[in-house]
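A.,

Following up on our hallway conversation. Structure tokens first:
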């Protein structure tokens, strides 16, 4: 499946949600699932890439259910518009990566769910210990804390071989987190936080693979025309 975001300068190609075909990676196929068509959870869904994923998941899978989380649900106008259109298939929850209790609260209200977590904070151009610490807490530990609380809810799909459905956790990273590819410097806190996220995600993927648990991957969407990108330019 190829997902093309509005005004996107590069194409994000992924097989995460190849609806109606096999092999496919789906949110959950457990017998305890309350909705036909699978359930997805998009973290950081109030705008930009996250909001577009929510929109396309709802539009491309007319039986799928989406749980969208963000820091300020009441102010998420894009999500509220989608809620008016897809009332029965979209839930909006409060989740702040900087506050673990909100992650835990969201996890307890979700059963048998598949997690896709895009997240971003605005880019800081100066080195500041407090800013670096805050960014690291959000960018690297936030996604791992989400996995911590969501992991017990994810189920490996049934079946075998290419027809096996499997739950997927996808962390949205960035090429600037690559150490070997760093030729321009700058973006100190952002680069280091993404490098740490890459390593932590790799660790989790290795550990999950031993138990044949949900697949853990990193996605690099390229440059996308969003509010966050506009701030960085």
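Then the amino acids I'd put at each of the 233 positions:
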């Amino acid at each position: 499946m190829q997902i093309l975001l509005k005004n996107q300068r590069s194409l994000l190609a992924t097989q995460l949600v190849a609806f109606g075909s096999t092999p496919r990676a789906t949110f959950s196929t457990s017998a305890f699932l309350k909705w036909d068509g699978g359930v997805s959870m998009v973290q950081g869904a109030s705008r930009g890439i996250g909001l577009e994923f929510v929109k396309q998941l709802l539009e491309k899978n007319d039986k799928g259910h989406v749980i969208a989380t963000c820091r300020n649900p009441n102010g998420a106008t894009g999500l509220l518009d989608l809620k008016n259109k897809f009332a029965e298939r979209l839930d909006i929850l409060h989740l702040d990566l900087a506050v673990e209790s909100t992650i835990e609260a969201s996890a307890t209200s979700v059963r048998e769910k598949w997690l896709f977590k895009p997240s971003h904070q605005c880019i800081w151009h100066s080195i500041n210990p407090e800013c670096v610490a805050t960014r690291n807490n959000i960018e690297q530990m936030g996604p791992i804390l989400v996995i911590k609380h969501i992991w017990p809810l994810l189920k490996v799909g049934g079946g075998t071989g290419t027809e096996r459905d499997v739950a997927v956790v996808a962390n949205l990273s960035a090429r600037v987190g690559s150490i070997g590819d760093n030729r321009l410097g700058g973006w100190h806190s952002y680069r280091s936080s993404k490098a740490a996220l890459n390593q932590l995600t790799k660790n989790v993927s290795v550990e999950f693979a031993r138990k044949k648990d949900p697949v853990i991957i990193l996605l690099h969407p390229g440059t996308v025309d969003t509010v966050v990108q506009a701030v960085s330019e």
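The radius of gyration is 17 Å. Curious whether your intuition agrees with the design.

B.
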